[in-house]
Write a structure and sequence with these properties.
alpha/beta; seven-stranded mixed β-sheet; six-stranded mixed β-sheet; about 40% helix
Length: about 500
């Protein structure tokens, strides 16, 4: 008997509703609905367009039902963002988007209350201004009335599930992205709340992926034309952890690059690593399925290419992604580099201009053409991956014979080839839909169709074909890497 489940996956620029059909051996995917996910700026604040997105979720449910039906639905998004719920159960305002600038400077400011080393030792999470803890700290400093009025917060996957069911829950993987969870107890960290003055009463009880199953509300069922009850399952709400669940690795010791708007480079561990080395490289220990730890580094990824393309489009230069890849290939290699994680590359806007300014400031060749800028971005990403690869191997004391590249970046053959050459190991690329497959896998686990994550990974490997990229020109890449280190460190 075929099991059919619906995965709702939100990415940085769009969302999808994808039906997964499991026949006991393979999972097949059918996209039933696709929509844009556009942040909205109002009076200087960047928001999620949450009501429209909820409408799109319901459209996905309607279309999935028309396409043959489904038994359950799971939702994943990026981490850190949340909605505030008042005492009447109402959403107080549109959730603020992590690209908003309300947290600027607050990481360093927080160290006056909770020293950096202590902060990291408590949570094991990478310091980034966008983290939930700093968003809440911003509210505490500048809009305290919002926290006083709020009864609870819900991270975005849990918020959408609440809108579908009327029931609140807090899923573990998305909760850990907040930098508010104790690395040892896997529960909320009292000391962080106390030191930063954030009210802990807002936080719900944390539950593991796949353990919370609710039902669509009667209101949503009626609106979507459903006659039968449908389950809403808390999957790994953090899209990165959903993607890790789908890595088609044969060994427990594997390393992955989840390549999309953000690049998440790391491995999966039984226990977190929190020490001087991991703090120095600002690496994160995020909660995953079966209580595992995703030991990984967040790196700005295809955002640099996506936003450059948007910038050129706004000025009448309309390039396809294939055009940009071709122009990058035609440009001379190893002329200049950027640090993709330099703060100026995070906000929306003129990425090409910022690339030029970075190169000018660091005394390098200044790229002018689109091809030169793309070549700089591509090579810099591949170099950053090597830097992270080396540091993770140093932290874990393990070696890895290949890198599993998963996610949308699998379609970018140039970046996969450069990653293999820069890191000096084979890249196994696929699946593209890793996040969706991980979402589906946890739904199957929750309903006893699959027994373990290891079994799910074998099923996914059996369902997908991988592309193999071997390293080339290793000596040239190694020499260029030394220059990259001098420019960026």
């Amino acid at each position: 008997m075929i099991k059919r489940v619906l995965a709702i996956d939100f990415g940085a620029s769009g969302g999808r509703a994808i039906l997964g059909s499991f026949d006991g051996e393979k999972i097949t995917l059918e996209e039933v609905h696709r929509f844009t996910n556009d942040p909205v700026t109002v009076n200087g604040t960047v928001y999620w367009d949450v009501l429209r997105l909820f409408h799109e979720i319901k459209q996905g449910i309607i279309k999935a039902n028309a396409a043959g039906g489904f038994d359950s639905v799971g939702i994943d998004t990026w981490g850190v963002d949340f909605g505030l719920i008042d005492g009447e159960g109402k959403l107080m305002e549109n959730p603020v988007h992590y690209r908003d600038l309300r947290t600027k400077g607050l990481v360093e400011d927080s160290f006056n209350l909770l020293p950096k080393e202590k902060f990291y030792n408590l949570t094991g999470i990478q310091f980034m201004e966008l983290n939930t803890v700093f968003q809440l700290y911003s509210l505490k400093k500048y809009r305290p009335h919002m926290l006083e009025r709020a009864e609870s917060i819900l991270f975005m996957p849990d918020l959408f599930a609440y809108m579908l069911t009327g029931e609140k829950a807090t899923e573990y993987s998305i909760a850990t992205t907040s930098q508010l969870v104790d690395i040892n107890t896997h529960d909320w960290c009292d000391e962080v709340f106390d030191k930063l003055g954030i009210p802990k009463r807002l936080m719900g009880k944390i539950s593991l992926p796949g353990t919370v199953i609710r039902k669509l509300s009667d209101e949503v069922k009626a609106e979507c034309g459903l006659d039968e009850d449908k389950k809403v399952i808390s999957v790994c709400g953090h899209d990165t952890q959903s993607a890790i669940t789908a890595v088609p690795a044969e060994s427990e010791d594997f390393i992955f690059l989840s390549s999309g708007t953000w690049s998440l480079f790391g491995t999966e561990l039984d226990t977190p690593i929190v020490n001087e080395k991991s703090l120095e490289m600002n690496i994160t220990n995020e909660g995953g399925c079966e209580g595992k730890t995703g030991f990984l580094k967040n790196i700005i990824g295809l955002w640099l290419i996506q936003e450059s393309r948007r910038h050129w489009g706004r000025h009448g230069e309309n390039y396809s992604y294939a055009d940009l890849e071709k122009l990058a290939l035609e440009a001379e290699p190893f002329k200049c580099f950027i640090d993709p994680d330099s703060p100026e590359f995070t906000p929306m806007g003129d990425i090409p201009g910022r690339v030029r300014e970075y190169c000018r400031r660091t005394g390098q060749f200044v790229p002018e053409t689109a091809g030169e800028i793309m070549r700089c971005i591509y090579e810099s990403l591949a170099m950053k991956y090597r830097m992270t690869f080396d540091k993770i191997k140093d932290c874990t004391g393990k070696d890895y014979p290949c890198i599993h590249v998963i996610g949308g970046g699998v379609k970018d053959g140039l970046l996969c080839r450069m990653t293999a050459s820069s890191c000096g190991v084979t890249v196994k690329a696929g699946p593209i839909e890793a996040t969706v497959l991980g979402n589906i896998a946890v739904q199957l686990l929750a309903q006893d169709c699959v027994k373990t994550v290891a079994e799910a990974r074998k099923i996914i490997a059996n369902s997908e074909s991988l592309k193999i990229f071997d390293p080339v020109d290793s000596d040239a890449w190694s020499k260029a890497y030394e220059r990259f280190l001098k420019v960026t460190e």
